[in-house]
Amino acid sequence: MAGAMAVAATTGLLAAVSHQRTAAAAVQPQTNSCDLTAPGRIVAIGDVHGAFDRYTTILREAKLVDARNRWIGGNTTLVHTGDAIDRGDESRKVLDLIRQLEGEARKAGGRLVFLLGNHEVMRMAGDWRYVTKTDVESYRTAQSDAVRERFYAEVLKASEAAARAKGEKFDAKAFRKEFLEKASPDAIEMEVAYSPAGQYGGWLREHDIMARINGIVFVHAGPARTFADRGCAAMNAEAREELKAPVNLSDPKLTDRMLWNADGPLWYRGLVGVEPAASPDDVTAILKSLGATRLVVGHTASTPGRIRLLQDGRVIAIDSGMLGGTMFPNGVPSALAILDGKFTAIYEGKRDVLITPGPGGASAEPPLQTQR
Fold first, then answer.
1. Starting from the edge strand earliest in sequence, which strands make up the sheet with 77-80, in order?
2. What is the mean pLDDT of residues 71-87?
3. Residue 1's pLDDT is what?
């Protein structure tokens, strides 16, 4: 059928149309994420993946929220290294709480630094391979049917215009039948929510992919040496520009973009020992390019779930498989606390000191086993 919809598997959504409709609404971050200072404690949390209950458990364990999930962290800087969403069923609840805490922390003299992971970028681009049915259904509202009709009108207009431009016939009746079969009301709500002007898409696009705080770089996966040479600020700027552009998920050149490249800051696994692994010299060069003393990364869950030191403590891997379940059967909720040169892993009912101030403060680690 001419003008047939570009449908993401199991959802029937039109990410490209939605993006073009609202791309001008993208918002620029208001602070320089590569030049931040934290007056007090820094707490970093890795991949939450929609595990709301486990997420709130570790927030309470770290003394960041109370029993009602309200901020009690004072001037603490809380850093999220991305992938708050996908895989789990409660991504929306996780994002809603993070957005709430972002404002509450600011009012209390603290800060919440949310960094994009590959799954946030995938969600915004319409790549929903890791979105659960329950997660999609959480976007259903009393207005969902009306929203779908409004969205359909825009999609129909765009598709008719595309067919005319190609000199092709357009079967409006068949088009509507396919649309109604593939685009459920809750899925359309989610598509709109993650568009540039949407409730979540607009908010996500205000955030960077990398932050340097007190000389420590926080990033979802960590760039390979070739990308690190661009520097922190340049990569953040490049990411913002890429997020403005429509994404064709079937384009073989998509991986030429930094946000989709295997060696880029959202995908690279070499820093945590996955082959081809980064060498000690690579890590030295990456740290120098980023103006950092250490790198804190998520993205690759450890087995068993725990925070680990790599490269003589210069790389700290904080993805402990918080979601658990069949995806990460040995995963646990965790957080990394940093204060006065002391690095402490926080688990439910347990603390492990990883690094103490001064030379030789980092403990040794065995080879990393991972769950992807």
1. 111-114, 77-80, 42-45, 335-339, 342-347, 350-355
2. 98
3. 33
The answer to which of 98-102, 187-191, 264-268 has the lowest mean pLDDT is 187-191
180 Cβ neighbours under 8 A, 6+ residues apart: none
- CA nearest 62: which of 80, 82, 35? 80
Is residue 24 predicted with pLDDT exceeding 80? no
What does pLDDT average to over the chain?
Answer: 90
SS3 per-residue string spanning the chain? CCCCCCCCCCCCCCHHHHHHHHHHHCCCCCCCCCCECCCCCEEEECCCCCCHHHHHHHHHHCCCECCCCCECCCCCEEEECCCCCCCCCCHHHHHHHHHHHHHHHHHCCCEEEECCCHHHHHHHHCCCCCCCHHHHHCCCCCCHHHHHHHHHHHHHHHHHHHHHHCCCCCCHHHHHHHHHHHCCHHHHHHHHHCCCCCCCHHHHCCCCCEEEECCEEEECCCCCHHHHCCCHHHHHHHHHHHHHCCCCCCCCCHHHCHHHCCCCCCCCCHHHCCCCCCCHHHHHHHHHHHCCCEEEECCCEECCCCCEEECCCCEEECCCCCCCCCCCCCCCCCEEEEECCEEEEEECCEEEEEECCCCCCECCCCCCCEEC
Interval 92-97 mean pLDDT? 98
pLDDT of residue 360: 61
